[in-house]
Amino acid sequence: MTELNSLACRIGLAALGLLGLCETSLAQRPDARTAVVAYGSDASTLDPQQINSRDTQNIADHVWMSLYEIDDDGKLVPYFAESFSESPDGKQLTFKIRAGMKCHDGSPMSAEDVAYTFKRARDPANKLVGSTPGFVLTSLGYKNASAPDPTTAVIEIDQYNPIALGLISEVKILCKAAYERMTIDQAGQKPVGTGPYRFAEWIKSDRIVIEKVPDFPLRKASFDRIVWRVVPEASTRAAELMARNVDIITNVAPDQIDTINRSGGAKVQSVAGTRRMYVGFNFKPVFNTPGGLAVRKAEVRRALQYAIDVPTICEQLLRAPCKRATGLVNPPNDNPDLKPYPYDPAMAEKLLDAAGYPRKADGVRFDMKLQGPNGRYLNDKNVMLAIGQYLTDIGVKTDVEILDWASVYLPLTRAKKEAGPMFFLGTGGGTWSALYDMADLSAPDAITNPMNWDDPKWFSRWAELNRKQPESEQRRVVNEMLKVFYDESPWLLLYFQPDFYGVSDRLNWRARRDERINLVSATAK
Amino acid sequence: MLVYVLRRLSQSVAVLIGVTLITFLALHVGGDPTYLFVGERATPQDIEMARQALGFDKPLYVQYLNFAWKLVQGDMGQSLTYKSNALGVVVEHLPATIELTMAAFAFATIFAIPLGVFAALKRGTGIDGAVMTFAMIGQSMPSFWLGIMMIIFFGLFLNWLPISGHTPLLAPLLAGDLVTAIHNTPEALVHLIMPAATVGLFSLSRNARLIRSSMLEVLGLDFVRTARAKGQTEKGVVLNHALRNAWLPVITILGLEFGFMLSGVVVVETIFSWPGVGRLVFNAIGQRDIPVVQAAVVLFSFAFVAINLCVDMLYARLDPRVRLR
Description:
The complex is a heterodimer.
Chain A lengths: L1 H14 L6 H5 L7 E6 L14 H10 L4 E3 L5 E3 L2 E6 L5 E6 L13 H12 L9 H9 L1 E8 L2 E6 L6 H5 L7 H6 L2 H6 L7 E7 L3 E6 L12 E6 L3 H9 L5 E2 L7 H6 L3 E16 L8 H5 L3 H8 L4 H9 L26 H10 L11 E8 L6 H14 L2 E8 L1 H11 L6 E6 L6 H5 L17 H4 L2 H4 L5 H18 L2 E14 L2 E2 L14 E2 L1
Parallel strand pairs in A: 1-10, 1-11, 13-14, 13-15
Antiparallel strand pairs in A: 2-3, 4-5, 5-7, 6-7, 8-9, 9-10, 11-16, 12-15, 12-16, 17-18
Chain B lengths: L1 H27 L15 H11 L5 H13 L13 H36 L4 H15 L2 H15 L12 H5 L3 H42 L2 H8 L4 H30 L2 H6 L5 H10 L3 H29 L1 H5 L1
Helix pairs in contact in B: 1-13, 4-5, 4-8, 4-10, 4-12, 4-13, 5-8, 6-8, 8-10, 9-10, 12-13
């Protein structure tokens, strides 16, 4: 086949006078020791303390160690730290650090590097804002970090935090000796890592190449090189995969799934991601409209849950089967006793009648606006239009308003918190803790609470969660709170957004729910 | 002459100020972009810290004055997405775009001339019809569709050409690294074929039609008849007399063509993952990376203003009447 192709190439390119280029043109496939990932956007920086996107974090996960990490099964496991303990009041977290580890520049690593990492992220002179460590350290209640001896690192926080270890797992450990010498700009361009792969090359908007550290003791990587290519156009990514020029592509467009599966060289892996898609009800007084007032009643919100056929939306519009969410927590950490609201429009109508909103002469009970973005989430516009139609069918006349994400919708949901009275949104979650997902609604004024929801039945329980107690007791409180969320329904519950990865048949690799691409554990077939 | 030069210089400065002001206002009219630069779980303190660090907490006129003052000093600020010098980021992407534009320009020009001349010489025949049909199709196809079709056909089915990506050629040359440039040349050329053809096909078609009609016009003129009457060979008539004169209107168009291609490669750069400045600016607008957009606009405006200024001065030098207007 290759010979035939080469002959065809010679005939074709001879016509263009470019015969000599044939061999080069056919040599695009990666060799057996190289894995190639194509994703949609370029890295913004390679300074882990300035990264704020999952795509770039995925590269960083290979180049740096963290104290703990979330493994392929979604569990927190030790990494640069051997073990972890906390003081009785939970305000002092002590990590036993592995000895004998080295930075990629050859300098030895110690607990001093851990302390330096946390201090650098919080040094106002560095202006490291808007990045992952930024929110992690704030959410953690970080106060100070120290290294009493070379194998002991201590992190102090202002109060007991039940998800402290998971938050800390997001922080990549930097080498003090190297980073003290670098400016912030230099740190973003030519990093010195600590993990199983070292940085080799970054051609902006084109590719980032990392190479295996041969003697890295903690993880055994099979590929010598990993190339992270920037291919913004989804159809081009799919073509590259089918031509076997890349091994993994992210964000496969649903309409290309069948084509890739039929190509003979690659398959699409679909996973229910951790991004929670929902329609929020906005309780802000600015929505004192008939619809806005109606959805302030829990019985109306519950009634609306029955009006939406979520599995059909998933099947038809997202091209993936799904189970309807029962709350804001990702399985398997959700409350197993809660059953998804079924699609039952008759029940929805009955409950709305009972709530005091019968159909009027024109068949309409009340009207509402549903706002949301276009192109931000998987097939978002059509999902919103479907929801609008489902609600209109039961007499809740819904006007779907599609807005520009960056300049209109994002400020509306996050700054003014005036999207609505119904709005479509997706927020990232995790697989390792129910509390991490629930933390979106840690306080009525939290920025991740664009509903302005302030139900004391939910918010008053946080004091219990933020108190040290046996795990079973913690789980009981979590389940009770999730039942409150289910009954009060501040969200019109939808689905966990599916993620589609195109994967070459030559690769043993399993897609994860949390959008992490771990190639350290991947192997060639 | 000095007065004329000073007048044109002051006009150019006014144009640059106008461009920066319009760009600045257009980018800021969408409101505070801080939220795009913080994670979705960022706390209000993080957001406020980010706003202050990025300077978006200050009144708009203060932000503009800060920007203008830095601009005068040659500092166009830090890219908000690349976290490094904005002008540096733009300049870094420039060679790829210039490579693509030059290749597309060469493709459009080199193939247009024989096609146009041949069609004119074979006027009314099947060959003429075929060339004109090809030109019509070439002008009708949207570049994004053509690009994807080429990817599917030449990249996927035939596997002749790389589907996407770029091998640097101009950048190592500019850096004086001749060895790398020579080493990269074959791969760089194969990477260029599909994107350059996609960008250049529209111009190729238009130029072929233009050359054909220009040739037909010239071939009917007296001096061509005279050349034939003097016993010139048909080849000599076409190359030495007809084509030389038919060139003039085409050359005028070609000058504009280069600028048109330079600014029109955004879609093609996206389809073929070409790491050029068009795609950079397109993404920067979407991500509200204001310094990068401003740096690119100022750089391109400066280049266009400088070229126009040079041309005007050349005119004034050659034709004294221009100075008196």
